[in-house]
C-alpha cells in the first residue's frame, strides 16, 4: 500500500497534463485537466471570500456528480495566467435558485469547468476546489466552511464535517 501524502506541505500529485502549478502563502494556481487554462487566486481574505459545498440540482448536473466543492474569489484578485481565450461559456437562469443568470466558463479543449459567474454575485467568481493544483489547500485554506442546499444532498452522503449547513443558498 502506498504511503499517505504529507499534507503539512504543498502536495502536487500527477493530476493533469500540466505540471507547473504552484502555491505561496497568499496565492495559488488552479489549472484545467489538459493544462491549457490556468488561473491564480488568493488563498486568504480579502480576495478569498468563502469556501463551500453545494448540493443543488444545478451542481449535480454541471459536475456530473452529487455535489460541487467551491470557493468564491473577489474578481479584483483573480488572474488569468494563460488560456483565457480558450474558455467557452454557457449561461442560463431557468434553474438557478436566484433566478438570475449564471455563466459557466469551461476549457474548450478538455471541458473542465474552471469557474462560474452569477449575476446575483457581482464582482465575484466561483471556482472549483478540484481545479486547485496544490492538493494540500483542499484540506486547509479551501476546506468548505458552508454546505448549502442540504435538502438536496443524497442520503448516502453525510455532509461536510464542521461546515455550517444551509437549506438553500448559504453564501
**Secondary-structure element pattern, one letter each:** EEEHEEEEEEHEE
* Straight-line distance between termini: 40 Å
> What structural category characterises the helix and strand content?
mainly beta
Mean pLDDT: 88
Low-confidence stretches: none
The biggest sheet, with number of strands, parallel, antiparallel or mixed sense and barrel status, is: 8 strands, mixed
Strand proportion, as a percent range, falls in: 25-35%
Shape: globular
Secondary structure tally, helices: 2
Tell me the strand order in the biggest sheet.
Answer: 6-7-8-9-4-3-10-11
Radius of gyration: 16 Å
Summarize the structure.
By secondary structure, this protein is mainly beta. The protein has helices at residues 57-63, 136-139, and strands spanning 27-31, 38-42, 48-54, 68-74, 79-82, 87-92, 102-107, 113-118, 124-128, 146-148, 164-165. Keywords: Lyase, Metal-binding, Zinc.
Question: Can you walk through the features of this model?
Answer:
The chain is mainly β and 171 residues long. The protein has two helices and eleven strands, in the order βββαββββββαββ. The chain has helices spanning 57-63, 136-139, and strands at 27-31, 38-42, 48-54, 68-74, 79-82, 87-92, 102-107, 113-118, 124-128, 146-148, 164-165. The strands form two sheets. An eight-stranded mixed beta sheet has the order 6-7-8-9-4-3-10-11. It has a three-stranded antiparallel beta sheet with strand order 1-2-5, with no helix packed on it. Strand 1 (27-31) and strand 2 (38-42) form a beta hairpin. The radius of gyration is 16 Å and the shape is globular. The relative contact order is 0.22.
